[in-house]
């Protein structure tokens, strides 16, 4: 009898303990899950770098096509970070500078890009545009929007363009003049440029568009995008 009583007492202590434990777990779950979901939506967690707008300040009509970093900085204040990580140059029609066969005089993150006519056999340069990738490890004055994913590539492609995002009012954190953009796959957050896919748009001014017809194999992956704004324009 005593044994049975003791066992009932122990069971009730166990029960109390479990109910206390469950309450704490439920409380933690209730508090942390929304917080975690909120934080995971915030783009600033993930991108450690982003691409600037494409710049095309010069035409190859004089001595060449001069897309120098010093001139670009002077003409586009605040739009290029102090220490770009990389530079990409393409012709206005989208061909990589490396594939044109032209001899490039400067092509680096210190000087920018220069194609001189006198270095070419036919004395002509293509008209190039350039852009830079910037790292934000040092906490520069960039405020990131949340991730946007308005479309998926089942139709003609994955259309995450800025005009539609603005029109559909997906969020209030899109500034008037984004200076950086970052796109990653929704499924595994692989940076867009590492997927090997070709993009119709990928710029802070237009947003991101991947068209299925531009891909050699398969269709576009599903991407999400976020934009970097000057913190002053967000505040
Ligand atoms: Ca140019
Ligand atoms: Ca998408």
Automatic annotation (TrEMBL):
Residues 51-134, 144-229 form the WxxW domain. It is found in: Secreted. This is Cartilage intermediate layer protein 2-like. InterPro entries: CILP1/CILP2, WxxW_domain. It comes from the Eukaryota. PANTHER family: CARTILAGE INTERMEDIATE LAYER PROTEIN 1, CARTILAGE INTERMEDIATE LAYER PROTEIN CLIP. Its main location: secreted. GO terms for cellular component: extracellular region. It comes from Xiphophorus maculatus. The keyword Zinc does not apply. Keywords: Glycoprotein, Secreted, Signal.
């Amino acid at each position: 009898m005593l044994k049975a009583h003791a066992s009932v007492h122990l069971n009730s202590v166990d029960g109390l303990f479990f109910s206390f434990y469950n309450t704490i777990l439920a409380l933690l779950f209730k508090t942390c899950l929304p917080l975690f979901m909120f934080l995971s939506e915030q783009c600033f967690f993930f991108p450690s770098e982003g691409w600037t707008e494409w710049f095309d300040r010069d035409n190859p009509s004089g001595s060449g096509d001069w897309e120098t970093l010093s001139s670009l900085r002077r003409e586009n204040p605040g739009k290029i970070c102090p220490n770009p990580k990389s530079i990409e140059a393409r012709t206005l029609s989208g061909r990589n500078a490396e594939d044109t066969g032209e001899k490039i005089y400067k092509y680096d993150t210190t000087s920018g890009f220069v194609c001189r006519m006198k270095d070419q056999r036919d004395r002509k340069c293509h008209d190039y545009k350039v852009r830079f990738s910037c790292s934000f490890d040092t906490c520069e004055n960039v405020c990131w929007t949340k991730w946007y994913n308005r479309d998926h590539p089942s139709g003609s492609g994955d259309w995450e363009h800025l005009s539609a995002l603005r029109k559909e009012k997906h969020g209030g954190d899109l500034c008037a003049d984004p200076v950086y953009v970052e796109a990653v796959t929704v499924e595994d957050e692989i940076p867009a440029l590492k997927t090997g896919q070709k993009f119709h748009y990928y710029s802070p001014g237009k947003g991101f568009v991947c068209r299925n017809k531009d891909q050699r194999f398969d269709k576009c992956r599903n991407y999400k995008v976020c934009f970097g704004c000057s913190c002053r324009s967000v505040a």
